[in-house]
Amino acid sequence: MDTTTSQGVHGSLATPASGRWLALGAVGGPVLFTLAWFVLGFLSPGYTLFGARIAPYSPISQPISGLGLGPTAPFMNAAFVVSGLLIIAGVVGIFQGIREIGAVARWGCTALLALSGVGAVVVGIFTLESFLVHFVGVLLAIATSVLSFLVSGLVLRRVPRWRRFGSWLLLGSPLTLALLVLFFATFNPVAAGANLGVSGLTQRILAVEIHAWYVAMGSLAFRRS
Asked: How is residue 130 annotated by DSSP?
């Protein structure tokens, strides 16, 4: 075997191998994010938004983004950014390890699923005080999952070793949509500011559900690569 051929073989083997470890980002990102809002939710004394003091902080009524203000801000915003970057890296690793599908489908799924990570980064950089951009980040982080789960599920069903998970992911799309509708139905900024309502709880259920799919994908990709 000549040098050129040897380099080509090693190069083709390096991508799946590195992708296997990158896939763990889809596990680490959600775990980091969940631990951050869970722990900081108990530690936050409240926050000030547009001159109004909102205290104490209630994980039941308050959005996760509220932890991005006040004393917990440096930690929560860092968790948003780091977890988002890990999710993006994880999705790249997952689909670079699935060589049975074409490049267009592989990168299309990667781009769609990475939008959730991009949204988390945006939310971590632009807090509630930059409401418009922050809201766009929230939509990217949660709403795009309805489409990305649907498309990715259809693609993964074409791969024998991923067919079962692809079928489950197709069910994840309407489930995410239902939880998204529930969250917006319960969200009232005035009530949340008065520590009333359950929008904080419904948002957390939605976030856990979405991230559970990423953790499952990352774990499967790591084991099957």
From this structure: S
What is the amino acid identity at position 195?
N
Q: Position of tokens 């004394």?
A: 45
> From the CB of residue 97, how many other CB atoms can be counted at a distance below 10 Å?
21
Q: Which DSSP string do the residues of 161-201 spell out, in sequence order?
A: GGHHHHHHHHHHHHHHHHHHHHHHHH--HHHHHTT-SSHHH
State how far Cα 29 lies from the chain centre. Answer: 7
Cβ atoms < 10 Å from Cβ of 161: 11
Q: Tell me the whole-structure pTM to 2 decimals.
A: 0.90
Give the amino acid at 200: G
pLDDT in tens, the chain (225 residues): 444 444 443 444 335 567 789 999 999 999 999 999 999 999 999 999 998 999 999 999 999 999 999 999 999 999 999 999 999 999 999 999 998 999 999 999 999 999 999 999 999 999 999 999 999 999 999 999 999 999 999 999 999 999 999 999 999 999 999 999 999 999 998 898 889 999 999 999 999 999 999 999 999 999 876
Q: CB count, 10 Å around CB of 57?
A: 22
Encoding tokens for residue 145? 């999952």
